[in-house]
Amino acid sequence: MVVDSGTMEPAEEQQQEQEEEEEEEEEMLGLDSEEENSEMSDDELQEAFASGLLKPGMNVLVDQPKKHVNNVEGMKQCLADFRKDLPWVERLVLTNPPAEDVLSQAEGKVPKPANGDVNADDDFQREMFFYRQAQATVLEALPLLSKHGIATKRPEDYFAEMAKSDQHMQKIRKKLISKQMILEKSEKAKKLREQRKFGKKVQVEVIQKRQKEKKAMMTAVKRYQKGMTDKLEFLEGDKKQPGKDSAQGSKKAAAKKGPNAKRKFKDQKFGFGGKKSGKKWNTKESFNDVSSFRAKVANAKGGKKGKGGKQNKRPGKSVRKKMKGRS
Amino acid sequence: MSAFKRKRGGQGAVGKKAKKAKVVADRDGAPSETEQGTKNEVTVPAPVSSGKWTNKERVLIFSSRGINFRTRHLMQDLRTMMPHSKADTKMDRKDKLFVVNEVCEIKNCNKCLFFEAKKKQDLYMWIANSPHGPSAKFLVQNIHTLAELKMTGNCLKGSRPLLSFDPKFDKEPQFALLKELFIQTFSTPHYHPKSQPFVDHVYTFTIADNRIWFRNYQIIEEDASLVEIGPRFVLNLIKVFQGSFGGPTLYENPDFKSPNMHRREIRIAAAARVREKQMVKEMQKMKRTEAKQDLSKDITADVFLTPAPEKPVHIETEAPEPRFSNKNKRKAMKRQRQRR
């Protein structure tokens, strides 16, 4: 809103007091800063200042905070008019805090402030709170009901329409059963997998042990045959238990290192089971993956030709004959 | 049948006999001896016994147009649970709200539960005492119906409920008023013709997080083991009015935020985040392109200059002497020591 100097002058002419000038400045300032000040005209501002409502300085307009209706008296009156005084049997109402939580070992029925205000975001706590409130009501109401002669248990042969149809209850039952079955199946499958792994390990160990024994036996026999030893202790079987233990201990330590590096690399590259067939396709990711590029290897021209032929090249017949002849 | 119902007072034996016949037909298998009076141990008293139904509460449950399937099912569930309820067709939204009062009068109901759906997203519920009494408007959230498979309980259709309230309802006047309204609306009158004589389920109303939570449990055992039947919903109070569907406002919930405002706030927050990121990017751009100072002289260069005396430069012309190691050659290597 533009400051209208035209309106300033008549104001000056009318009242030539010190206050008036101050007021003008203030008006100018006020009008500059508040553009929504169109309601308060200059005259009104003058009057307000004259009567002492406005003070010199910056006057800023603020919004009055929104008032929410809370007509306590009206509500109490309304309630008094509206309420019906009926015997308890008609309404079956009870007001009570939740029953004591056996599981969390709360003390007494006095609701502690910490427990009284349930946290609405914690789903489990909240639902348990409601559940316990209902429980408390039921516990209190049952003796009252029996006093009035109203039953809560219906007899076995009382057939009547239920809120949910039988069909629906069947569906619910089926769902519960299927959930349980799924759980059981998964448990069984897990156990079986564990067993199989364990069984395989045991089997492998047994086979290895047998092979080792066989080898030891054979070497012992050979040595006896060749005359290196004249003791026939190997025929007595495993007597060297304490000696064997240390060997086994070191073997276990070796086994603890886990699969060797080659196995690890292969696992890392090809994964542990799962889909094996489609793994080596040229996909975008595999094409763009240059992690296995070795510049040294790629740019080396020629280099060693596989260690100059085969390493363990078997010598020819003549050479072998010569060697045999010599030994 | 309905004609009998409408006549007030002094029904006499005629109506009673008619009711009894219908009741027998409903219950297949219940022996008829149990109905006839003699109250020995577990006899089933008939729901209607010679005009004892005095508390004439009738609730009209209906909705406006544009509700979705969940609301429709909720309404049907409420009608199932409350035998003292009546249904009506959908109200056109063009009509003003006080038309509802007239509909209630036509149907001879004195309470009303009216569901209003806006934008096919938000559901509002009006609960009113029809001719003059107070009414309240709520926003309904978290609706779960009877048909959900996780609610495994079941109850007799039309059995009377126990009502359970949080003690917080007595602390504030608006909640006290609402409590009275809920009691009168939801409790099935004693000896209502469509009610069952057993009490096997309980409604709970609890206040948490400034909202009213409604749950419905089935009473299985006498030791108060419960299973949830459903439906369940959460009511967020908006306003309480003195009249039915109108009249002066008695109470306005200061914590209520309309769903539109809520959605708008989320959108504004997201927009603000995006704008902030853009601003940051622009600032970075500006910084990059603005003329940078040429730092030819390092003003901190002489911070670490510590003047020290100069050392004379010494050039070695002869080879250094061999050093003698002070390794004790008599001492064996560690491994050999260990072996021993």
UniProtKB/TrEMBL annotation, chain A:
Keywords: Coiled coil, Nucleus, Ribosome biogenesis. GO terms for cellular component: nuclear periphery; nucleolus; preribosome, large subunit precursor. Residues 10-46 have a biased composition (Acidic residues). Residues 253-266, 302-327 have a biased composition (Basic residues). It comes from the Eukaryota. It holds the Pfam family Ebp2. Residues 234-243 have a biased composition (Basic and acidic residues). Residues 1-50, 234-327 are annotated as: Disordered. It is found in: Nucleus, Nucleolus. GO terms for biological process: ribosomal large subunit biogenesis; rRNA processing. Coiled coil: none annotated. Belongs to the EBP2 family. Required for the processing of the 27S pre-rRNA. PANTHER family: RRNA PROCESSING PROTEIN EBNA1-BINDING PROTEIN-RELATED, RRNA-PROCESSING PROTEIN EBP2-RELATED. This is EBNA1 binding protein 2.
Automatic annotation (TrEMBL), chain B:
Its main location: nucleus. The keyword Transferase does not apply. SMART domains: Brix. GO terms for biological process: ribosomal large subunit assembly; rRNA processing. Residues 311-321 have a biased composition (Basic and acidic residues). One of its GO terms (molecular function) is rRNA binding. Keywords: Nucleus, Ribosome biogenesis. Residues 326-340 have a biased composition (Basic residues). Residues 57-246 form the Brix domain. PROSITE patterns: BRIX (PS50833). GO terms for cellular component: nucleolus. Residues 1-49, 308-340 are annotated as: Disordered. This is Ribosome biogenesis protein BRX1 homolog. It comes from Scophthalmus maximus (Turbot). The lineage of its organism: Eukaryota, Metazoa, Chordata, Craniata, Vertebrata.
